[in-house]
Amino acid sequence: MSTASTRLPEGRYGRSSDERADRKLKIAATVLGAALLALVAYFAYHYIAQNEISAQVVSFQASDDAVKVHLEVHKDSGTDGYCTLRSQGADGSEVGRADFRFTGSATRVDEVVTLRTTARGTTAELLGCHAG
Q1: What is the C-alpha separation between 79 and 81, in angstroms, rounded?
Q2: Contact status, residue 49 vs residue 65, Cβ threshold 8 Å
Q3: Is the CB of residue 53 less than 8 Å from the CB of residue 81?
Q4: Which residues cross the membrane (predicted)?
Q5: Angle at CA 103, nearest 5°, toward 76 and 109?
């Protein structure tokens, strides 16, 4: 008595549906991966290359109703913008926040600005700078 083989003859019925599904999944994964890579590259470019303003707090001096902040801003020539500063009290509550504008063609602005506070501030924090 001979036993019948359970395997299909090679090449007679084409590829199995599992192979077709695997190929479609590989193509879909490749397309989605490329799209994700392009999206990350786009945001990275705009974050790094288009950042026209950078700043830092050099020092600050606090009094009962104000904080004098030495602010140094680096920007592209002709770019106008503003930097947002805040101060917190000893208990961590915010006692002052303000935007300081800068204009002109200078690429470096080194200025002492006064941030008015509702109580004695113990910090001077740069929250960010924006063009516009």
Answers
A1: 7
A2: no
A3: yes
A4: 25-45
A5: 65
* CA distance between the termini of the chain: 89
DSSP assignment of 14-44 equals -S-HHHHHHHHHHHHHHHHHHHHHHHHHHHH
Q: Can you read off the two tokens belonging to residue 72? A: 């140094």
Residue 61: which pLDDT band, with cuts at 50, 70 and 90?
A: very high
Please count the other Cβ atoms lying within 10 Å of the Cβ belonging to residue 84: 14
Average pLDDT, the chain: 87
What mean pLDDT do residues 122-126 have?
Answer: 93
Query: Could you report the per-residue pLDDT of 62-97, keeping only the tens digit for each?
Result: 999 999 999 999 988 888 889 999 999 999 999 999
Report d(CA 53, CA 80) in Å as an integer: 9
